[in-house]
């Protein structure tokens, strides 16, 4: 396998794959990448809650690459990529077990919508809303990589719906931490706040992505209306 040292080299071997470029995080602290045959693997520590190993390519080339990379970086890294590929890796890489499938969605156009959502000056009230409305969120105030929060607020300034700019890479912004107060659901507020964050991140990074549970059809429909396309991905982990 050959180690990739720069973002420009990564683009050459990955074809600007959004999963790979997001995982690379601009080759920030601790990020490393390799290629072998038509496969590419990017090891990114502590991004969106996990040490992630983003992988693309054919399973024939990816399996030996992932095996060797895991020996290099350690078993905490979770291979992550298209579901068919990850299932193949789980069959071929000793000790690797398929974990779960979910959705990766990305967009490169500014949504056409009107919204009063805006960036918050801080994160007052965000943790309380997440605790009530989305306790399994990966993005929380103060966590590494979680940069800023956007919100729609009520007449008294209370937070009604929120979303975060979290773990964004130079080439791919990332939307996370979406939550709407239970009393404010069904009014299209999440579409507005997600549309605002999507527009801001597309303007800044050129593309934006997110992860979503594959069975959350309501959320997927909202993101599709904002211009996102869906890609079925999965993760695996060492036993």
UniProtKB/TrEMBL annotation:
GO molecular function: acyltransferase activity, transferring groups other than amino-acyl groups
Domain named N-acetyltransferase: residues: 108-239
Record protein name field: GNAT family N-acetyltransferase
Regions crossing the membrane: none
Pfam families membership: FR47
InterPro entries registered for this protein in UniProt: Acyl_CoA_acyltransferase (IPR016181), GCN5-like_dom (IPR013653), GNAT_dom (IPR000182)
Organism lineage: Bacteria, Bacillati, Actinomycetota, Actinomycetes, Propionibacteriales
Organism from which the protein derives: Kribbella jiaozuonensis
Keywords on record: Transferase
């Amino acid at each position: 396998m050959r180690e990739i040292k720069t973002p420009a080299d990564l683009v050459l071997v990955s074809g600007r794959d959004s999963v790979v470029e997001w995982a690379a995080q601009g080759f920030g602290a601790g990020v490393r990448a390799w290629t072998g045959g038509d496969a590419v693997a990017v090891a990114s520590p502590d991004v969106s809650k996990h040490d992630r190993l983003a992988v693309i390519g054919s399973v024939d080339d990816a399996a030996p690459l992932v095996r060797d990379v895991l020996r290099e970086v350690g078993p905490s890294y979770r291979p992550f990529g298209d579901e068919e590929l990850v299932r193949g890796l789980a069959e071929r890489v000793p000790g690797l077990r398929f974990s779960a499938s979910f959705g990766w969605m990305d967009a490169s156009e500014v949504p056409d919508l009107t919204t009063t959502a805006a960036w918050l000056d801080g994160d007052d009230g965000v943790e309380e809303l997440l605790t009530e409305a989305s306790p399994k969120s990966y993005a929380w105030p103060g966590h590494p990589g979680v940069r800023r929060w956007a919100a729609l607020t009520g007449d008294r300034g209370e937070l009604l719906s929120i979303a975060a700019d979290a773990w964004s890479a130079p080439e791919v912004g990332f939307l996370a931490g979406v939550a709407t107060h239970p009393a404010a659901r069904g009014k299209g507020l999440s579409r507005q706040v997600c549309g605002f964050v999507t527009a801001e991140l597309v303007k800044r990074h050129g593309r934006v992505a997110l992860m979503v549970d594959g069975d959350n059809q309501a959320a997927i429909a909202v993101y599709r209306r904002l211009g996102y396309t869906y890609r079925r991905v999965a993760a695996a982990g060492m036993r």
